[in-house]
Design brief:
Elements: H1 5-13, E1 32-35, H2 45-60, E2 64-69, H3 81-94, E3 100-103, H4 108-121, E4 124-127, H5 131-139, H6 151-163, E5 172-175, E6 190-194, E7 208-210, H7 212-222, E8 227-231, H8 235-248, E9 254-258, E10 261-263, H9 270-279, H10 293-298, H11 303-313, E11 320-322, H12 324-335, E12 340-342, E13 344-346, E14 348-354, E15 360-365, E16 375-380, E17 387-392, H13 393-396, E18 403-406, E19 410-416, E20 421-427, H14 430-435, E21 439-441, E22 449-455, E23 461-467, E24 478-481, E25 485-492, E26 495-501
Parallel strand pairs: 1-2, 2-3, 8-9, 10-11, 12-24, 14-20, 18-21, 22-26
Antiparallel strand pairs: 4-5, 5-6, 6-7, 13-23, 14-17, 15-16, 18-19, 19-20, 22-23, 24-25, 25-26
Helix pairs in contact: 2-11, 4-6, 7-8, 11-12
This protein binds one RNA strand of 79 nucleotides through strand 5, strand 6, helix 7, helix 8 and strand 11.
Length: 502
RNA sequence: GCUCCCGUGGUGUAGACCGGACAAGCAUACUGGCCUUUCGAGUCAGGGAUCCCGGGUUCAAAUCCCGGCGGGAGCACCA
């Protein structure tokens, strides 16, 4: 190693991955990216993908990250008031710097202006056909009769949409595209429609609402978005929006499609989560079974872990499934140096040990890799050579006559198991235990332990006893319960932890 | 049905656009050694892949072409 320091270095550095550079930078005054969620649920791991890429690029080019709430469909995806705040909290937790923020439902006047312009130009029209009838026509590549009507007529109809003459479903603004386009979804797509459901922010102030492709395209242009990073499922939307850009003569942003990110059998579907939360199947949006950022945070996942994983994956147009194992591995590396070690005895049983001599000293490092962090020290004073210990019932399940070692303390032979469990002093040295292949188990005594519970990934609760010392920790601290797993302090009173991973 | 994407060890993937040092990289899982105290951590080592199938191009194919099979996504008056 001394002779070849450079080899050693090379291995250490391990190539920190960075994102590929953006294209077409010269076409834009500055890099502007946006994240545009519907506030109908909190952020989840799937949303994190485009968020992290956008944020990384904004920082890389000293650009702007724009947060834009797309809350224009109260009928189908009703926004939840609380989510406007939660999403901002989630972004802050991820370490994202938001430079500009907009709420689409506050911008209807802008969309109206462009809708009128579109109609006046003859690039759009108001269709009053029955939607089923219309579908038959466009599937057959046939225009409907509304399409050929003069702009004056459409402006008249526009007024009727706004003043309430048309009812919901009676009329819709369409953008002229190519009625013979091979993909039916592209043909004269709808841009604005009538919606009368009360909006949580706007109440009943508006009755004509833009659809996604219209408001998104107008806003991307107005806000000067240079690069759009979005899920592959939006591919056809890019094609649709290009028609609108062409009508108005706007420059279309660079689109980077990223594949859908799945979490191993994890729950990332917003509608499913919402259903489960509403029905009480889940304890809330941060139920440990969910893939929401809030749930991951509660389980002790570090925001840096999410960022690292996304950068490793890179902005690629392929769908991929992240496994929990992978997430846990990255997180573990991150938290391990700071996670002190403690004992937690799950499902404890009493083990009476006989034949103990004198006071016993236990000196357990808070972190075996960093002795300078200090020790947990305990003195055990047997009465008449006897002392009762608390151990995990699971650890004694298959030991019968075998030797076990109480970590950092003593080796004992288990004599009786079952209703009353007893053991006998065997030896002191851990080498003896190692040689004889004894199980090393952790232990507690009544005097130095407190009741604690750990919420597991499947939302079940493991009850047990923990070292009293853990009551000195703070909420959000990460620690390792030896031979149990890494956990996060969720609450001190009652004493509760969330299980992160092994 | 139409459009698009993907098919590499148990699992998740890299490499494929620009064929050749790729008898295939990484992570995880697994197995074993080590660890003056975690056999659920850490550390080191190891086993494990005819690169979905068939054909073609080529001196040379995981990589290019054709066909097949398998999986996924999109196709709303949702975002």
């Amino acid at each position: 190693m001394k002779q070849w320091p450079e080899l050693f270095e090379a291995k250490k550095v391990e190539a920190k991955k960075i994102l590929p550079p953006l294209r077409n930078l010269e076409k834009w005054p500055m890099v502007k990216v946006r994240f545009a969620p519907n506030p109908d649920g909190p952020l989840h791991l799937g949303s994190a993908e485009s968020i992290i890429f956008s944020d990384e690029y904004a920082k890389m080019y000293q650009g702007h990250f724009i947060l834009r709430f797309e809350d224009t469909s109260a009928d189908v995806k009703p926004p939840i008031l609380q989510m406007y705040d939660w999403i901002q909290e989630d972004l802050a937790w991820l370490g994202v710097k938001v430079d500009e923020m907009y709420i689409q439902s506050e911008r209807l006047a802008i969309y109206y202006t462009y809708a009128e312009k579109l109609l006046r130009m003859g690039a759009g029209y108001i269709c009053t056909c029955d939607s089923d009838e219309y579908k038959k026509l466009y599937m057959a590549k046939q225009p409907c009769t509304c399409r050929a009507l003069p702009p004056e007529e459409h402006l008249r109809r526009w007024g009727m949409m706004l003043d309430g003459s048309y009812k919901r479903g009676d009329a819709v603004v369409r953008v002229k595209t190519d009625i013979t386009h091979p993909n039916p979804a592209i043909r004269d797509w709808p841009a604005l429609r009538i919606s009368t459901r009360t909006h949580p922010l706007q109440k009943r102030r508006h009755r004509v609402w833009p659809l996604y492709n219209f408001s998104c395209a107008v806003d991307d242009h107005l806000m000067g978005i240079s690069h759009v990073i979005r899920g592959k499922e939006h591919e056809v939307n890019s094609t649709r929006q290009k028609y609108l850009y062409d009508h108005f003569g706007w420059q279309f942003p660079d689109v980077i499609n990223v594949g859908r990110l799945g979490l191993e059998a994890g729950i990332l579907s917003k509608s499913k989560i919402r259903e489960g939360v509403d029905s009480g199947v889940y304890s809330g949006w941060d139920d440990p079974r969910l893939g929401t950022l809030r749930a991951l945070k509660r389980r002790g996942l570090q925001p840096e872990t999410i960022r690292d994983i996304m950068i490793q994956v890179g902005p690629k147009p392929i769908n991929l499934t992240i496994t929990w194992g992978n997430i846990a591995a990255v997180n573990k590396k991150l938290i391990d140096p700071d996670a002190n070690r403690y004992f937690f005895v799950a499902d404890p049983i009493e083990l009476k040990v006989k034949g103990l001599k004198g006071p016993l000293q236990a000196r357990l490092p808070l972190h075996p890799d960093y002795p300078e962090k200090g020790y947990r020290e305990y003195t055990i004073e047997p009465e008449d050579g006897e002392c009762v210990f608390l151990v995990q019932s699971k650890d004694l399940a298959d030991v019968k006559e075998r030797l076990i070692r109480f970590m950092g303390l003593v080796n004992i032979k288990v004599k009786k198991t079952g209703k009353t469990t007893e053991g006998e002093f065997d030896s002191m040295e851990h080498q003896v235990a190692r040689e004889k292949g004894a199980a090393f188990i952790h232990w507690l005594i009544e005097g130095n332990s407190v009741d604690a519970e750990v919420v597991m990934p499947n939302a079940s609760v493991t009850k047990g006893k923990a070292e009293k010392l853990v009551t000195k920790l703070k909420v959000d601290d990460m620690l390792q319960f030896e031979r149990f797993g890494f956990v996060r302090v969720d609450s001190l009173n009652p004493l509760r932890f969330y299980y992160a991973h092994d």
